Amino acid sequence: MLKLSANPQEPFWLDLIPGVRLRVRPITVASMLVAREAVSKVYRDEDQTDVTTRASMALVHELARRGIVEWEGVGTAEGEPAPVSAETVNALLDHWPAYDALDALYVTPALRRDEEKNGSSNSPDGTSGEDPNTAMPAA
């Protein structure tokens, strides 16, 4: 069952890694289409090394740049709070634990939304072959 939210555009907080929280917008159709375009640029690139890895990174980076609206616990090299910008989001995602957590907590759930289905969905049309019985007859 597709679960519709009354206000799907409301940003929410994610605890990314110890000491770092992000306020993110829900991933929208527009965000996903822009991210897909970033992925397609990777596949059109002449250099065909590590394409799958670079495509995954492009998707996560693009969704993060479009989705992060605020953060806590992210600072500059001088120890000042860092503003949210494309450059600082990219720098955050160069930190492996942050990248991995954002992918797991923000991107992957959005990609899996289409997997939500009714527990008792319709059976496919047509007939299928019968499997052999595996249970022993009752006494």
What would your notes on this structure say?
The chain is α+β, with helices and mostly antiparallel strands and 139 residues long. 42% of the residues lie in helices and 12% in strands. It contains four helices and three strands. Strands 1-2-3 form a three-stranded antiparallel beta sheet. A hairpin with a 2-residue loop joins strand 1 (12-17) and strand 2. Helix 1 runs antiparallel to helix 2 and helix 2 (51-67) crosses helix 4. It is extended, with a radius of gyration of 21 Å. The model has no long low-confidence stretch (mean pLDDT 85).
Please give a handful of descriptors for the protein shown.
139 residues; alpha+beta; 4 helices; 3 strands; extended
What would you say about this model in short?
It is built from four helices and three strands, in the order ββααβαα. It has helices spanning 29-44, 51-67, 86-93, 96-112, and strands spanning 12-17, 20-24, 68-72.
Gross morphology: extended
Rounded mean pLDDT score: 85
How can the largest sheet be summarized?
A: 3 strands, antiparallel
- Number of helices in the DSSP assignment: 4
How large a portion of the residues is in β-strands, by DSSP E? 5-15%
**Radius of gyration, CA atoms, in whole angstroms:** 21 Å
User: In percent, how helical is the residue content?
Assistant: 40-55%
Order of strands across the main sheet: 1-2-3
Determine the structural class based on helices, strands and strand pairing: alpha+beta
Q: What are the secondary-structure elements, in order, as H or E? A: EEHHEHH
Low-confidence spans: pLDDT under 50, at least 5 residues? none
